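--- STAGE predict ---
source: upstream dedup step, 1 unique chain passed
mode: sequence only
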Amino acid sequence: MRDFSVPIPSRAVWFHAFIGGYEPVPSNPDQIRTWPSLIKAAGFDAVFAYITQGYLEALMLLGDQNGQPYPSAYWKPKDGFTIFREECDKWNLQFHATYAPTQDLRRDVQGKHPGWITSGATIEVAEPEAFDRIMRHVEFIAKFYQPDGIQLEEPYYQDPPNHSHPAFVAEFKRRYGYDPTDLVAIQEHSSFADELAYTKKRLIVSMLQNIKSTVNRVSGKILLSANGPSAFDSPYIREGYDPDTWKSECSLNFLVPQNYSVTVENHDNVLNQLKARWSPLDLVDGIGLNWGGIDNCSSSEKQQVIERQIISAARGVSGTALFHWAAIDPNSTSNGFAAKLGDFKERFSNTYDIDAMCAVNEGVIVAYKDAPIIYCCPEARNLRGGGKAKLVYNGREKCDFLLPVDRGIIASFSGDSTHAHAYFASNANIGGGEVLYVGTRRVTSIVACRGWIITAFQGLEGVYKVPVGAQLDSGNHLPLRGNHVASLAAFAGGVIIRFATGSVYFSPDGENLDGGGQTQCVYVGSPTAQKIVRIVPFTGGFLTEFDSGYVYHSTNMNDLGSGEHAYNGGAENLQRVTAMIAFRDGVITAFTQGGVYYSPDGRHLNGANGTVRVFP
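--- STAGE serialize ---
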């Protein structure tokens, strides 16, 4: 079983920063301290930060007498990577050190150790000294930076095959008994090409297995991942690339396919190839812009990035990693790092907004606005997958409402403008089971009350009231004097009805929903009054959200428009509530741009005084 003490990231930014000389770029610790806050503000929850071998060598060679690293007299005793890692902790950003074991982008090795090189910048891992150096780098990263994960950048032979390297020749002869450079011997072996490719694959597998054991020896909680070409039949496949074997033999925690140039039309096909070999929850989909830089991308190209991210989420992958050299290069002179991340924040602002939530015995069930996926999340954790969260719906239509009922759940979906439907199913199979409704009207609200299901439909005056288990539009239609129902909420065995006019009624028995009998009006709306847009009863009282963005906490149903402020969403630049449910004795609140909080007492909905962030 995988160790889930460190969850797989849901949205990551691939950050190419620690590249130049013996110092990061830029060589300013104060500026480095600002990067994690900018990344967090842009809506990311994880960072893949690239660190080159040359930078690692500098730290290891310039360490003090006790072996503790420091890069220079300027920043003693902390280097830029350490500063960045500490700031990521402060901002609750998961931190993955990206390291390329078979490459060196600064070409240091080529000049200092030409015997280690196959060609260009690829290191021959059959060379014992080169292999040992890679293991020392991995141990150094794991020990001194203690990252949440280590991402292995393209761990294969990047350049054209070179089977004349002495170490490789020796390994090949040991394996097959003849010299791979002997042309006469090669002509006698029709299997030479397969033998050559297999040898390179096994050398890479051996390297990855040793990296995994090194990481486990230092800290078993470090996730290990690798990236590589997007499709298994890609023309960019390099020697030694074998993610099938990486999964089965090397215990990698997840794969990051480099879907940087995949089109929207082909994205689904590529993901299906990968999912056939890797579990969707073992994939963090790599998505990028074109190589011209974000400033050279058209609006349509940027929109394609968003659409590809939505496809990834809809297909149940654990997350996405946004990659582009120029777009996230802190040394860029165009608009700067903050402006570029701000651009992504604006364009991805709605991609993780929660549209529907409900509490069940197993935890919380969550549906999203951006993608037709639903998760069941124990303890309201890992709301986008990972950990103990289970993907319970992965279809093509978005879920509008989730209603827990006895022995299951009712879920309503909307397809196009002419089709909607609802199911009764188990919590683990939402979207399957018994069909309760098929029609042209979308369900706008639904509630269970004293053995009945009351449903409001789009464009329909009044509601339908049917026994539990019956077709939602087959029973008694209650016209409610021509008034449209905006929402329904269960409370104390009865139902709270919010009308489009702004008035709110409470029916303790599910009868006379618009007044009369035991039903009472608890809030009178008017053209000049604030409109109530959401009411959530819970153990500690009532939370009432108004169209102004304010949310009030009140202990009395007749005091919905006052009480103390639980959230002031009316202030400029503050986020709005997208979903809110009672959970245990408290309240879970989801906001625009993806933040989700649990308040144990229904106060301070977005933080402080015991309120904790549960996602991301």
